[in-house]
Amino acid sequence: MKDHPLSNCEEKFVLAAIAENRRFDGRGVYIYRPIVILYGHDRGCCHVQIGCTRVLAQVSCEVIIPKQTRPNEGVLHMNVELSPMACPSFEAGKQSDYGVEVNRALERLLRDSLCIDLESLCIMSGEKVWQIRVDVHVLNHDGNLIDCSSIAAIAALSHFRRPDVTVSGEEVTIHPLDEKDAVPLSVNHIPLSVTFAFFDQGRTLLVDPTDQEERVMDGKMVVGINKHRELCMLHVSGKMLVLQDQVVRCVNIAAARVGEITDLIKDTLEKDNAARKSGKEFGFAKCLADVILGVDDLLKHYVDSMSVDTTSVGQTAKTVVDADGNRVQMEVDNAETGNVSIKVPGTGKMSTNTEGGAVTWCEGEESDSDVILLDKNDSTSSEVSSKQVSAVVELSDSEEESVLMTSQDLERTELSKSRAIETRENRGGRCRGKSFGGRNRGKRGRGNGQRYF
Amino acid sequence: MAVDLRLSCRIKQKPTTIYKEPDHLVTPGDVITTDTGFMRGHGTYMEDDKLYASVAGTVERVNKLICVQPLKSRYSGEVGDVVVGRIAEVGQKRWKVDTNSRLDSALLLSSVNLPGGELRRKTAEDELMMRQYLSEGDLISAEVQAVFHDGALSLHTRSLKYGKLSQGTLVKVSPSLVKRRKTHFHNLPCGASVIVGNNGYIWISPTVNEEADSTGGFVQDLNPVATADREVVARLHNCILAMARHRMMLSDTSIIYTYEASLAIGSLVKDLLKPEMESEVVTMARERLETES
Amino acid sequence: MAGVEVVSEQGFRTDGRKPNELRRIRCKQGVFSHADGSAYIEQGNTKVLATVYGPHEIRGSRSKALHDRAYVNCQFSMATFSTGERKQRPRGDRKSTEMTMHMKQTFEATILTQLYPRSQIDIFVEVLQADGGNFAACVNAATLALIDAGIPLKDYVCACTVGFVDDVTIVDINHLEETNHIAEFTVAMLPKSEQFVMLEMSSRLHLDHLSKVMDMATKACKDVHLVLDRAVRDHVSEVWQQLGNT
Asked: Entry's SUPFAM superfamilies (chain B) (predicted)?
């Protein structure tokens, strides 16, 4: 399925915002989205989340005959699967160019930099060696797949335990897990990748681009580096030309970021080990439960409202056509712009001094009565909303009745039902459903369970 | 059946001569001038107030215009050029013709002569019958009528000398070897006629002594051609290939001289394909051209 | 891996070169008459053929056509007899696809594609003998082929491999040195403006050595540029004479 393209106005807007060093989620230019690392029940299973990008890595091992050119080295095999589950533009089966890029980047980062000691995987030289296979599945694509996959792969490799082996003469015994404890892989160093998105011919750099930023960037540079300031991989893609000092700058920034992420991986590994040793619960179910507050809230999502700095924003009006149809230059009073706060990603609530203006969609006398009714209810609803302690906002926009509502919601629904019936009679039921309530819904935040019909 | 085999190491290597560099030779990335008063032509680009060359060739300056001509490039047409092309596609009211240029040229239905006279209005029937006049794979000779803004050419065959080509041989050479002349249709004294297309496609056919008929050049004459004529055509074909390999400019005089030189050394037609024969014939023709100019 | 020493105590490498010496480069333009542009290059024992077709009408799917630029189509292929052991697949495996993508990206940035809207430029590269530095040789060959075809470029694209082992920077790595898991940089750049078009690095290298390695890479690419430029000038002079101009 072909991915829908980004519209021109969205593209221009994103580029203009980035030119002013502003990002859509308010991050700094060199800051990562929140990284969450979870380990599964099996050894070697790791789930990493950077913002909304999710990736699952699983490590497995097998005994095989080694390569003829390298008889006493094990084999590390990497595979990244981009399935249509992550993004509809990925094709099932056939590996696209992007898939090859991600695969090769990860192969170079982990295999060519020798992060695992391959000679320790040898059982019998020339006959039997361990093949370690890392399978990475991308679950959700919201930009920066390479970084996410690299964290998942190396965390999974550090988490994995292979069965212990004893060799006595010609006999090789592979001990099952109940006989002897599994042995960890010998990880030499932890290489991680940091992706930089370039804009404006390399003048603006962003770390950890989201999917939207990736679509409009000029090109990207992936720097693979470990905590000891050793460069493991460099990869530049996109049609841009870079200078030497840009490369050096990126590499230094990457070195700083990687230290934090390595500490996070080690931290989570220790926690998981401690949990397993002490007999506590471990695995995805437990971890996911810790991350999200309370089982009741599985359908709801609590977000702190973030405020946005609007001091540099002003209203402009180019020309206004007055009642006679003449173009008039209007002076705009910028003092009226109020504070904007983000309640849910993608919506904003703006509180101004006046509670909105007159409805100008529908002509005729009905509009006046509408206005009166709406204003009355507005004052009551604004009171109600101010009483609410926690703005519980539902994300499900479904038309079904099975929507959880609090008691206050039910009150409001009663009010709106009565109002809706009145206005519908007045207007002959012309404006229906969502469009009718659009203005008010925007004021209170999306999807708060109001049902307009 | 005799097969002629030779080892390339046995071919006498021609002595490596040091060629003199032409004046104003530039390669991509060279700075031509830092003077901003010049207009930039083909083969150049401007960056940071400096004019750079983007192809390898010699700088040509005409008053305020600076351009760099590459040695070899795809054919870029000009109005009035004669071209030989092959129909690539039959579309709505137009044929797409492959003429060795950047984009396929367009031959509009309104630019051809249809049977039944010149000034007939094109009806819907004509559109459906387009394939009967010219279908994919046919060779035509045409003239460039106009150049579209993206560089594609618009052709026309509105003269009786243009139209579908019937029996003969096509030779493809580089467009840079063909100079613009008054006429590109030559009837050679040896009994063959040659159409030298500006796009580097050259058509050799036996001379047909018929008066031009009123059907507008769409009827193909598929009568068998005599062996002697075929030999002449084949010899001309090999001569033109030899000239192209040695980068000699193609015109009716040079083709005739090369043909006569090949007859003079008494070679068989197929012997002209051997490298030594080629160079001999070409050098003889070159000398003759120089003495006569 | 024990055994082979990449740089000996006297400062010579396994093939007798000094660390900053390039292998001998021999190249020829215009090897094929059918293609618009072609070139053959030998860098030491690595032998590569490149052909260029275009710009021409887009064949196949019209959806590839870009309204404002030319579409660059590359193919990187290694002959089955090019490596020590017979290669099973000449093209289509991951490494070849990656090389193809890198070439496409390199040349899309260098060719002035805005001059040829709705056209297609094909670049085909075949490695006949692989002895290290395959990608670099391919890029150099493709540059020569593009210049032969008369396609406008911003500048030459010169590529080279640089390695770092035992505190010594070595230039133009051959296959034997590659198999020793040394830190390897593959660099393609525009020599006049010193801008990198493509950068790839494998294995481990400490950051402190990064600038040293990149400076050496810049110098190596400039040396390659001198050789290629000389070859192009000789070829142009020869053709110029043959065309009957004095």
From this structure: Eukaryotic type KH-domain (KH-domain type I), Nucleic acid-binding proteins, Ribosomal L27 protein-like
Distance from CA of C193 to the nearest CA of A (A): 9
- For chain A, the distance separating the N- and C-terminal CA atoms, rounded to the nearest angstrom, is 35
Interface residue of B16, B24, B54 to substitute, partner C, most C CBs within 10 Å: B54
d(CA C37, CA B244): 15
Point out the least confidently predicted range of A43-47, A376-380, B28-32.
A376-380
The single residue listed with the structure tokens 């409001």 is A412
Average pLDDT, chain A: 75
Confidence of residue C47 (pLDDT cuts 50, 70, 90): very high
ipTM of this complex prediction, to 2 decimal places: 0.88
One DSSP character per residue, B204-258 reads: EEE----PPPTT-S-----PPPPHHHHHHHHHHHHHHHHHHHTTPPB-HHHHHHH
How confident is the model over A29-85, as pLDDT tens digits? 888 899 989 888 888 899 999 988 999 999 999 999 998 888 888 999 999 989 888
Cα–Cα distance, A237 to A218 (Å, whole number): 9
Q: Which chains touch B (3 or more CB pairs under 8 A)?
A: C
Q: Could you tell me if A215 and A142 are in contact, meaning their C-beta atoms sit under 8 angstroms apart?
A: no
Whether the bond between C55 and the residue before it is cis, its omega within 30 degrees of 0, is yes
User: Can you tell me whether residue C99 is helix, strand or coil?
Assistant: helix
Nearest CA in chain B to C118: B103
| Nearest CA-CA distance, residue C116 and chain B, Å | 8
Rg (CA), chain C: 19
Nearest Cβ partner of C196 from A113, A226, A242?
A242
Length of chain A: 453
pLDDT digit string (tens) for A92-111? Answer: 877 788 889 999 999 999 98
pLDDT interval class at C242 (50, 70, 90): confident
Tokens of residue B290, six digits: 């120089």
Write out the two tokens for A20: 């002013």
Yes or no, beta carbons of B150 and C242 under 8 Å apart: no
Kindly report the length of chain C: 246
Q: What does the pLDDT look like over B170-228, one tens digit per residue? A: 999 999 899 888 899 999 998 899 999 999 999 999 987 655 544 445 667 777 888 88
Residues 170-229 of C with CB under 8 A from A: 181, 183, 185, 190, 193-208, 210-211, 214-215, 218
- Judging contacts by C-beta atoms under 8 Å, the chain B residues touching residue C237 are 19-22, 25
Q: How far, in Å, CA of A279 to CA of C13, rounded?
A: 57
> Which residue type sits at B153?
L
* Yes or no, beta carbons of A241 and C195 under 8 Å apart: yes
Which contacts qualify for A80-87: CB closer than 8 Å, 24 or more apart?
A80/A106, A80/A136, A80/A138, A80/A145, A80/A149, A81/A135, A81/A136, A81/A137, A81/A138, A82/A138, A82/A141, A82/A145, A83/A137, A83/A138, A84/A1, A85/A138, A85/A139, A85/A140, A86/A138, A86/A139, A86/A140, A86/A141, A87/A3, A87/A141
- Reference B75, options B107, B46, B97, B91; nearest CA is B97
Best to test chain C binding among A69, A70, A82, A112 (most C CBs inside 10 Å): A112
pLDDT for residue A370 is more than 50: no
pLDDT per residue as tens digits for the range A248-285: 988 999 998 999 999 999 999 998 888 888 877 677 76
A224-237 residue pLDDT tens? 999 999 999 999 88
Contacts of B133 (CB under 8 A, 6+ apart): B112, B114, B218
Measured over the CA atoms of residue A384, residue A385, residue A391 and residue A392, the dihedral's sign is positive
C128 CB within 8 Å of a chain B CB: no
More reliable by pLDDT, A225 or A354: A225
Query: What are the helix (H) ranges across B32-165?
Result: 124-128, 130-133
State the Cα–Cα distance between residues C41 and C231, nearest whole angstrom: 11
